[in-house]
Structure formats: structure tokens, C-alpha cells
Amino acid sequence: MFAMQYSHRLPADYDMQIIRQRAARRGPLWDDTQGLAFKAFVSQERGRHGAAGHVYASVYLWLDAAAAASFLMGERFQAVIDSFGRPRVETWLPLDARAGTDRAQKASWLLREERSLEAGADRAALHAAQIESNRQRAAEAGTVAVWTALDLDAWRLVRFTLSSHEPETTNGGTLYEVLHLARPGIGALA
Fold it and tell me: What angle separates helix 65-72 from helix 75-84, to the nearest 10 degrees?
């Protein structure tokens, strides 16, 4: 598996309806993509849910790293570059990924949480704890999917939760509104 995200910061006066329309138009084109667990088209709007500015982002969980490479080197990613410029792409090694009890529900929110790994941390114990935490989160009502990935460059864990309802708390994480969720491979997750 392979996880990634790229984001586009937009001007404060940008009409976010344009982004909603783009996601509605382009999102369904991903619904049958081979090698993809899911792609979330997400946004943040300035002043809502703690967002400092307008952001449009794409968050991916790939089942097949070769499919991710093909995307990044192909025409689909060129369309992103043509529209927004070449973004910085954050990439991670997935450690655990699970479909939630409400996997068939419409995902409305994506929560991104980060946790630094100290140099002396017991990585095996932390990995086991993340698996158990994800198992519990996946069983919660409203959870569509949850996955944790390792940022090997910064030595931190990044956990994403897709849910049908707005989280009561973000625990210092970043909350995005889901504009479209393509989920061709969600059935392959634990």
C-alpha cells in the first residue's frame, strides 16, 4: 500500500463553489480506478472548523504502489499540474488500514491527526497500539474508514479517519470537508 496527499492553498476571495463543482465533475472519474482503495476530494474554508485559509486537497490510499506511480507520472496528474501548478506531494507508508462499520455511508469529514515518534520509542509497541486504536475507531458509528501511515522523513505517525458525521473533537488534528469519496478498493481493507 501507499498513502499520499497534496494540497492547494487558494486565495481568501476564491469562490469555493468552483472547487465543489470540480470535485463533483472529476470525482466520479475515480470510482473504478484499479489499485486504489480510495481518493478523497477534500476542502477547508477560511474561518470554518479552525481553517486559516481556503484549501483544496486530494488524499489517497493506494492498494498498489505501482498504480500510484502510474498516476503521478501520467496524464491524470498532469491535469492537476495544469490547473493548480505542481504541488508538493506528501507520501507515507501505511501501517494499518481498515474499513469502518459504516463503510457504505457517505463520507462527509476527513480528520488528519499527527503524532511524532521519539527516537527511543518502542516502535513495535506503538505499531500494535495503533492497530488496536484503528480497530476501535473502525467499530465506531459513522466511521467509513481509518488508516495510519508512517512518515519516514519526519518520523511521525499520521492517522486519517473518514466519517459520515462531524467529529466532536479534532484532538488538535486537521478537519476537512469531503466533497467526493471514490472508493473502488475499500472492500480490500480489513
Answer: 50
| Structural contact between residues 137 and 156, judged by C-beta atoms closer than 8 angstroms | no
How much of the chain is in helix, strand and coil states, percent to nearest 5?
Answer: 30, 40, 35
CA distances to 24, 34, 59, 125, 154 from 109, rounded to whole Å, are 16, 24, 12, 29, 26
Give Cα separations from 66 to 63, 103, 117 (angstroms): 9, 25, 28
CATH of the domain at 23: 3.30.70.100
Q: What is the mean pLDDT of residues 70-74?
A: 98
- Position 146: which residue type? V
For residue 143, the number of C-alpha atoms closer than 13 Å in the C-beta half-sphere is 19
Count of structural domains, the chain: 1
Contacts of 98 (CB under 8 A, 6+ apart): 134, 135, 137, 138, 145, 146, 147, 189, 190
pLDDT digits over 38-49, tens only?
Answer: 999 999 988 787
**CB of 164 within 8 A of CB of 108?**
yes
In sequence order, which ranges of 96-152 are alpha helices (DSSP H)?
123-139
Grid cell, residue 69, equals 506511480
Asked if 167 contacts 174 with a C-beta cutoff of 8 angstroms, the reply is: no
Domain of residue 169 covers 2-188
